[in-house]
Amino acid sequence: MGDKSNQQLVSMDQMLQLFKELNKPSSSSTENTTHSLTLTEKLNHHNYAKWARLMYLAISGRGRLQHITAAPPNTDDTEYPKWVQRDSQVFSWIIENINSDIVNQFLDYPTAKELWKGIETLYSSGKDELQIYDLATKVGSIKQGKDSIEVFYGKLISIWKEIDRRTPSPMKCPEDITAYNNIIQRQRLYQLLAGINDSLDKERRDLLHQDPLPTVEMAYAQIRWEILRRSIMYDDTPPEGTLSSEIGAGLAKKGKQDYTRGRRGNDDKAHLKCTHCGGTRHTKEGCFKIVGYPEWWPDLKKRTKDRDGRANITEGVSEKVGKANNSSEEQGCSDGRDHWAWY
């Protein structure tokens, strides 16, 4: 049932396509309202919430919303014949967007409003409690897992929207509405924090210690920023499920690839010899004596000297190490690593 609830969501592409269709220029408003109306998908047993929203917008965009929301005029009204004509048009729009295997049960309704209400009664009221139960169960058990934080948060948003659509706020007074919304916000904050991976436990605790508690949107933004920071700062790939799918992930991946590529290239330079200084593992084009020494070169020499000094404590060996270090300007560095790869 979780997949079915996801299918009921109205995507942005579908909304844009609908608005584009409604805004097509026509020679007159009469011509526009007599055109057929085709939605991106027809009503079936599983997509009522999504279909109803799209159908409502389409009818409203053509100026016929009163035919599914208002009572018809009296039969002796002078406008009644025109109203019947327009109502039949709205009726046909709805029928045309119902799957053929279920459309027959809706053909006998006398008006578009009664047809609309009949569909709502069949697919909304009769099954909402089961659907709400399914959504509540799913939102309480959903975990981030291998999903990026963006994908995980998007799944939560989708379920929350479906729940809101089926359980509108019962509050009327502004103060009660605010209090009710705060309760919902707190519940959804808990659901978000309960679903993120354990590698974000510190961020989870920090958010719960804030007073007042942050909104769901603020908490998501802070978590996402922390994941982005980690993905940039880590030398290696961050723990599974915490790598953001956007900028930080790209930077972290690039850094790791560059490092791996550099290590792999060490063996490829073993045969190189500089014709300028006679050093190995580099060529004349990359020789530091020609192109200049990088800023890190003195520090590298010092670290190499210190390391070799600790490993060789006798005077004779120290002299040998010093000699090796003195030659490092020509041949790279005595530790055997490919420091010429900097160029």
TrEMBL record:
Region (Disordered): 304-343
Highest taxon of the lineage: Eukaryota
Protein name: Retrotransposon Copia-like N-terminal domain-containing protein
